[in-house]
């Protein structure tokens, strides 16, 4: 999917406006309340107090347990159809475990060392922001930024190969939910954005956003199609209409992982939203069909070695014809070039 400069400029302008909305809302709130900062509006709302311990536990270990339990249910139900073998098993396990061991030191260094150096004396300077304002601010800043990060990795040929690992799995489910090139994960801009906002005093709303977002994105990757009842029963159709346009669901996200768009269901050229599908609605990159693809992955997948998928371009694939192999450059195919030259210089398009 090529970059349309005019559309890109328009969408970036809309994004800047959306980013400004929580700031504008907080400003108007204090203007209307005569600038009074009360303890009641910056503390956690009373109706959420009971949930705070649960959210803290879910963030530390609960999400991992959730993934493992849901994955076990998927396997027990036979939803992987014997596809989880060999290289697939190895890359999924490594992508699940390695970031949990390697990322915490990176994030800790950024939070405790880099931020105090980059923005000294600014710790907790946003602690006066109401909980709802912080939640609104982080939810938009985090997820809209990830939408763009995700979208550009599909539209820029060089970046695609860092994200390609996530689309190589020929199945959906908890096994592949964490399947990413490590460099793609390390440079997740929203990780550092959320860490910075937490450093500035918005740790509590960041906790709630993180847990809610993680739950939604994991559920969207699941092979258990929990959204089907909303499409099946007419009384639930109004709920489905709102739900599928607001957050990512299995139907919309599975379509993003389809291996073709020719069937009218697959939509790997869109449906980029992670927590909010709303971004795809706003920017016109969404497709809602309430149907599920027949097959997943990329048609040019070569079953590349785990180290090439996880750490390209540090390690290259030895598979002939692989976009992750040595000597494959990120430039378009030229029809005037002979076949051998093209073979050495082609970038892998996002499925065609």
TrEMBL record:
Its main location: membrane. Keywords: Lipid metabolism, Membrane, Oxidoreductase, Transmembrane, Transmembrane helix. The chain crosses the membrane at residues 12-30, 58-80, 101-119, 182-200. It is a multi-pass membrane protein. One of its GO terms (molecular function) is iron ion binding. Residues 136-285 form the Fatty acid hydroxylase domain. GO terms for cellular component: endomembrane system; membrane. One of its GO terms (biological process) is membrane lipid metabolic process. It is found in: Endomembrane system. Coiled coil: none annotated. This is Sterol desaturase. It comes from Flavobacterium cheongpyeongense.
